[in-house]
């Protein structure tokens, strides 16, 4: 996730852009850049660091011109460095652009462009877009047409702000699967990833939809379809948010905003790994001694990964909490071992220590990480990114579901490489996974009913979360979410374990959250639910079967899908329930007591 902003009007563009970037910094903070234009010349300044650091070091407020675009980066392709920072430009230096998103087919496009003589400076996917427009411009001579033709060749997600010296009175903005909104001023126009970037100047906005682009001058704007170039009628909306509300896109907390971002970041995770996953699967396919290490929520993703690898790739990995791994497995790791480390931050001390040990012993290390360029990516031999963008809330939400998406893709691709599952089933799973972001979108509509349920449950002292098989980790993660932000005691356990002890704690009204999708263990889950009910539990069941609805006190209807794909959608209501309980109990879910976003001590 990155932040983009553009301005055209009478003011000094750099001042408006720098202010906007400051407000977009939560979207990415590894590097910053601005391009302005005056008298047919582009002025570009960019570099690694926070907005404040780069503004001071490169004097960003001293750039001429009344039009320009800016970018705050959260690296996806290419490590954070000065060259990879945006804007990126074409060979002629006449086109400069900033980008938020992921271009899936950039490697193929780059190869073709290099063959045609284009010279690339950066490792980014973004630079391809500038060269592609330049190439199309050679044959069409009309910038807008060249832009459309070029962008139709892209696969993936993109929000773009584009400056072209040949057309001094305008800017172009494009949206596909990455957010972009126009700000309509009086004699000036704005565009950004998010409203707060320009809210100080105007509250009149136009939201672009996928595959639309805008041509903006200081006095006019028009939105068109990318496929046809036809004009689209758009409504100008008036925003009545305060600046603080706007930074969270109107959500009261970052955590809720991040829960609601899941459909989009899941799409990014799927797009972002579509090409690389095959190579990674091939590189690791022959390892039979596999360890998965992680902490906290990432550990729950690791546990889900174990079920995925078992069921699809017929591999039996050992999953270990990274803080335990070093003391128990040192003698067992060797050059025939594969260690998969899962970490959002890429900086968790226990996970890094486990990875270093694995490297020392000659093992192959694959990291599944959110933060590009973090320590974990430097230690690992191979890295898969989750592409979830920065997560501000301490409780991991969107980074968990994107970890699950990557693990699902990896297990499918491994199964394909090894021939351990029917190709037809693998294809169905891939299609199903691509539909999961839409399903999650639907589940987000449960937020209000879950808030009402939280009202009913907010004074409870203990919660139990039960699940089986591939959804046992969902139960563990649901319980962790509740503990860390609501401070209610919660236990996640396998439903089968209930009667081996914990059942003694079930009495009248104790909430038992049962994760019960249709699948291998559904009938057994019904039995466990009955056991809990017989002791007076208030059973909150997540599933899609009518039988489940009949036995539960509160039924949370979920989409019916292949059991393998259930961990992603099924955690979403549990994130929402934990969030609402935390808020109703007067806690700040973004900053839970005693906890830090990144745990860098062992
Ligand atoms: C989850 O909500 C927690 N904040 C925590 O358990 C976290 O998942 C854990 O500290 C691991 O972090 P990492 O993914 O950055 O390594």
Question: How many strands, which pairing sense, and closed or not: the largest β-sheet?
Answer: 8 strands, antiparallel
Oligomeric state of the chains in view: single chain
Lateral arrangement of strands in the main beta sheet: 3-2-4-1-10-9-11-15
Helices, by number, come to 20
Q: What structural class do the secondary elements suggest?
A: alpha/beta
* Distance separating the two termini: 29 Å
Global morphology: globular
DSSP helix fraction: 25-40%
Strand residue content: 15-25%
Number of strands: 25
Nearest-angstrom radius of gyration?
Answer: 25 Å
Name the bound molecules. Answer: 2-deoxy-2-amino glucitol-6-phosphate
Mean pLDDT: 94
Which segments are poorly predicted (pLDDT under 50) over 5 or more consecutive residues?
none
Question: What's a concise summary of this model?
Answer:
The chain is α/β, with parallel strands linked by helices and about 600 residues long.
């Amino acid at each position: 996730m990155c932040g983009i902003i553009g301005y055209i009007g009478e003011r000094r563009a750099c001042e408006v852009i720098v202010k906007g970037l400051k407000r977009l910094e939560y979207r990415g903070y590894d590097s910053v850049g601005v391009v302005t234009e005056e008298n047919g010349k582009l002025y570009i300044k960019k570099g690694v660091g926070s907005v404040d650091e780069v503004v001071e070091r490169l004097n960003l407020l001293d750039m001429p011109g009344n039009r320009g675009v800016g970018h705050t980066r959260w690296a996806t392709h290419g490590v954070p460095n000065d060259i990879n920072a945006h804007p990126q430009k074409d060979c002629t230096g006449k086109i400069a652009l900033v980008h938020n998103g992921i271009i899936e087919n950039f490697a193929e496009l780059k190869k073709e462009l290099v063959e045609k003589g284009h010279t690339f400076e950066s490792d980014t996917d973004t630079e391809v877009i500038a060269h592609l427009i330049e190439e199309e411009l050679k044959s069409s001579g009309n910038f807008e047409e060249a832009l459309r033709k070029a962008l139709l060749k892209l696969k993936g997600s993109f929000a773009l702000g584009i400056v072209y010296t040949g057309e001094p009175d305008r800017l172009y903005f494009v949206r596909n699967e990455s957010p972009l909104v126009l700000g309509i001023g009086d004699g000036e126009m704005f565009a950004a990833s998010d409203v707060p970037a320009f809210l100080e100047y105007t509250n009149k906005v136009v939201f672009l939809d996928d595959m639309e682009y805008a041509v903006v001058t200081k006095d006019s704007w028009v939105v068109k379809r990318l496929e046809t170039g036809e004009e689209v009628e758009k409504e100008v909306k008036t925003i009545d948010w305060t600046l603080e509300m706007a930074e969270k896109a109107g959500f009261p907390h970052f955590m809720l905003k991040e829960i609601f971002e899941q459909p989009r970041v899941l799409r990014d995770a799927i797009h972002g790994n579509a090409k690389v996953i095959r190579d990674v699967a091939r590189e690791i396919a022959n390892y039979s001694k596999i360890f998965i290490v992680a902490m906290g929520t990432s550990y729950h993703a690791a546990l889900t990964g174990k079920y995925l690898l078992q069921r699809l790739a017929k591999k039996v990995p050992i999953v270990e909490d990274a803080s335990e791994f070093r003391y128990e497995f040192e003698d067992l790791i060797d050059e025939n071992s594969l260690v998969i480390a899962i970490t959002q931050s890429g900086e968790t001390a226990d996970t890094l220590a486990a990875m270093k040990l694995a490297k020392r012993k000659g093992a192959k290390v694959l990291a599944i990480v959110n933060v590009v360029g973090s320590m974990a990516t430097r230690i690992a031999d191979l890295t898969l990114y989750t592409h979830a963008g920065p997560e501000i809330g301490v409780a991991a939400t969107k980074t968990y579901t994107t970890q699950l998406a990557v693990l699902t893709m990896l297990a499918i691709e491994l199964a394909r490489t090894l021939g351990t599952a029917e190709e037809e089933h693998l294809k169905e799973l891939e299609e199903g996974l691509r539909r999961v972001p839409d399903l999650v979108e639907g589940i987000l509509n449960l937020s209000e009913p879950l808030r009402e349920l939280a009202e009913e449950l907010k004074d409870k002292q203990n919660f139990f979360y039960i699940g089986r098989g591939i959804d046992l980790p969902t139960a563990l993660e649901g319980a962790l979410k509740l503990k860390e932000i609501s401070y209610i005691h919660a236990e996640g356990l396998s439903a089968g374990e209930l009667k081996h002890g914990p059942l003694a704690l079930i009495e009248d009204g104790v909430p038992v959250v049962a994760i019960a999708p249709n699948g291998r263990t559904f009938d057994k889950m019904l039995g466990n639910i009955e056991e809990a009910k017989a002791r007076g539990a208030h059973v909150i069941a997540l599933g899609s079967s009518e039988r489940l609805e009949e036995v539960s006190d509160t039924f949370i209807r979920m989409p019916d899908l292949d059991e393998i794909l259930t961990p992603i959608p099924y955690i979403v209501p549990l994130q929402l329930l934990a969030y609402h309980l935390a808020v109703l109990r007067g806690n700040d879910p973004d900053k839970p007591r005693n906890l830090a976003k990144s745990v860098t001590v062992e």
